[in-house]
Design brief:
With 383 residues, the chain is of the alpha/beta class. The chain folds into two domains: 6-178 and 297-382, Aminopeptidase, CATH 3.40.630.10; 181-291, 2-Layer Sandwich (Alpha-Beta Plaits). It is built from nine helices and 16 strands. It has helices at residues 6-18, 27-39, 102-118, 138-144, 205-223, 261-282, 302-314, 332-338, 364-382, and strands spanning 45-48, 57-61, 69-75, 124-130, 156-163, 171-173, 177-179, 181-190, 194-195, 230-239, 245-246, 249-258, 285-291, 298-299, 320-322, 341-347. The strands form four sheets. It has an eight-stranded mixed β-sheet with strand order 1-2-4-3-5-16-6-15, sandwiched between helices. A four-stranded antiparallel β-sheet has the order 10-12-8-13, covered by helices on one side. It has a two-stranded antiparallel ribbon with strand order 7-14. A hairpin with an 8-residue loop joins β1 and β2. It is elongated and about 75 Å long. Bound molecules: the ligand CC(=O)N[C@@H](CCC[C@H](N)C(=O)O)C(=O)O.
Length: 383
């Protein structure tokens, strides 16, 4: 086996695209990744599957003269989105899609691994194929299980996310905060159901919900410093069963984003206050569940990120773009709070946004991404 070619990489990406799986259920993906990794030259490789996180894969590439272990993370889960790209290699798993480009992330990681399994690195390289980025905080779970210990402990950690707003194959990054921290929000309103004709005998959670949503949407505009900003999106609402029965239960699911932990906590507190107010004024139970999990702001390490950015800027084969912070969330933020490192963007040039049913990243970004990262890792290992 040699290093994966561009067409082999595209084949791999298309296969992964067809088998998207949700957080912590990435079994088919896991088996396929193992199958591909086993095709590489095994002389320097050691593979480990943590028992308690069975869809994760860790691969250590033993270096020739290791001074450190460099970690590289790729997330492997997909989203509950019904694909509408019309591509021949569309998702075969109904209602699930790689709409956030984790198929690209995995393919780039496999490309790097195939290269370093042939050309032994100087330092150790630890590849972490991580389940559950979109929900369930796979990164935090992995850390708490202690899987990054002893030889699996990265001295520095890198990871990328694809970005449709950047040219294909370009690398984007910034000093400081790259991504927001997020909190998952679940709200259950519990009133009393009843006949549509007799509201006086019921307690309508749909009416309370409408008021609650409007009040929540004043948090960003009225309660926080506009220069610092944040986002609250309530993406899912479920209420009632039929038009002529008053809904006794309504559930709202959403997400809060802020560029600092302080901002996240401020928004969380306002949300608690508003829910308490709604409970009182509508005389019903409002149960609020806030869960940040591992979605801490992604804070790039100053020293390593300066090295990363200055290398990418001077590499003539790389189009480097200094980016603004983004309100996307990432549980790599949790891992970067434990290990120094850098998260960066890989441009995939697409009109569709991340998480959209028509998301179609440009596949030429895969090969260019691998080249840029491979060159950086080789450079870093000589430093
Ligand atoms: C890059 C990206 O799109 N990440 C997700 C992370 C999910 C965070 C968490 N489940 C939440 O919704 O708060 C994102 O939606 O930004």
């Amino acid at each position: 086996m040699t290093v994966l070619s561009e067409s082999e990489l595209i084949q791999i990406r298309r296969h992964l695209h067809q088998i998207p799986e949700l957080a912590l259920h990435e079994f088919q993906t896991h088996d396929y990744l193992i199958e591909e990794i086993k095709k590489f030259r095994q002389d320097y490789l050691e593979i480990q599957v943590p028992q308690a996180l069975p869809t994760a894969i860790m691969v250590l590439v033993h270096g020739s003269n290791p001074q450190r272990t460099i970690g590289y993370r790729a997330d492997i889960d997909a989203l509950p989105v019904e694909e509408k790209t019309g591509l021949q290699y569309s998702s075969q798993n109904l209602g699930i899609m790689h709409a956030c480009g984790h198929d690209i992330h995995m393919t780039v990681a496999l490309g790097l691994l195939s290269y370093f399994s042939e050309y032994q690195p100087i330092d150790n390289l630890m590849f972490f194929f991580q389940p559950a980025e979109e929900s369930e905080s796979g990164g935090k779970k992995a850390y708490e299980l202690g899987i990054f210990s002893e030889k699996w402990r990265p001295d520095e950690f890198y990871g990328l996310h694809d970005n449709p707003a950047l040219p294909a194959g370009s690398i984007g990054c910034r000093m400081g905060t790259l991504f927001a921290g997020t909190t998952e929000v679940n709200i259950d309103l519990i009133g009393k159901s009843g006949h549509a004709a007799f509201p006086q005998n019921a307690n309508d959670t749909v009416v309370a919900m409408s008021s609650l949503i409007m009040q929540i949407q004043t948090i960003i505009s009225r309660s926080i410093d506009p220069i610092k900003s944040g986002v609250i999106t309530l993406g899912k609402v479920e209420a009632g069963t039929i038009r002529n029965v008053i809904a006794g239960h309504t559930r709202i699911e959403g997400t809060i984003r802020g560029l600092s932990q302080k901002m996240i906590l401020e928004i969380d507190q306002r949300l608690r206050d508003i829910c308490a107010g709604i409970a009182r004024s509508y005389n019903m139970e409002v149960n609020l569940d806030l869960n940040q999990g591992g979605y801490w702001p992604v804070e790039n390490n100053p020293k390593l990120t300066e090295i990363f950015i200055s290398y990418m800027k001077k590499n003539p084969n790389v189009e480097f773009i200094e980016t603004e912070p983004a309100m996307t969330g990432e549980d790599f933020g949790y891992l970067l709070a434990k290990f120094p490192g850098t998260m960066f963007w890989l441009g995939v040039n697409d009109d569709s946004q991340l998480h959209s049913a028509t998301f179609t990243p440009d596949e030429s970004s895969i090969f260019r991404g691998i080249e840029a990262i491979k060159d950086f890792l080789n450079y870093r290992m000589k430093a």
